[in-house]
Design a protein that fits this description.
The protein contains six helices and five strands. It is mostly helical. The protein starts with a helix and ends with a helix.
């Protein structure tokens, strides 16, 4: 009987009370994140700052490739090993496509070649963003310096200035481009 009472008590504590407490605290202290960090434009949800999206076309900055085509339900990588011939071909194809669009002579940043582990990474490095500025500026008929300044303005510094690396949220950067028009 004691075991049954203990089981019921622990089920209520860990299955009901603790989740309600954590949900309540997050709703009070981390409002935006607890609601998915949704980005709204013209009263319409256009994305989340936490989930990468597929941007196509010359006029947008492109994020990391996704092995799951940016579908958040089955998030995950390709699970191909570093010695996989399929991975090697995929990376070579991505490199060739990027070089075709951006021209030769510039080193292609690795995050534009390799998908993230979740397939949903919303960030790229400033290096990957600057790699694309010339293409975006030309496609939008903007000054290259103007686009470079946008990248600079949307570069997020590491947490506490030393934990992690600088990143650029691709959705925010593309939103800023849309606001230039």
């Amino acid at each position: 009987m004691k075991a049954l009472r203990m089981f019921i008590w622990m089920a209520v504590l860990t299955g009901i009370l603790y989740p309600l407490l954590i949900t309540g605290v997050s709703q009070l202290m981390l409002v935006a994140k607890s609601r998915g960090s949704l980005v709204v434009s013209n009263d319409k949800v256009i994305g989340s700052t936490l989930i990468g999206q597929k941007f196509e076309g010359e006029t947008y900055f492109w994020g990391r490739p996704s092995a799951i085509d940016y579908n958040p339900l089955p998030s995950g990588g390709s699970n191909l090993s570093p010695t996989s011939l399929k991975l090697k071909k995929t990376v070579e194809d991505r490199r060739a496509a990027l070089v075709k669009v951006h021209g030769e002579g510039k080193e292609v940043p690795s995050e534009l070649l390799f998908a993230s582990g979740s397939g949903l990474d919303p960030h790229i490095s400033p290096k990957a963003a600057y790699y694309q500025t010339e293409r975006v500026a030309k496609a939008r008929k903007l000054n290259n310096d103007q686009v470079n300044k946008l990248v600079e303005a949307h570069t997020e510094q590491p947490f506490m200035f030393f934990m992690g690396e600088s990143t650029v949220n691709v959705l925010h950067l593309n939103q800023a481009l849309e606001n230039i028009r």
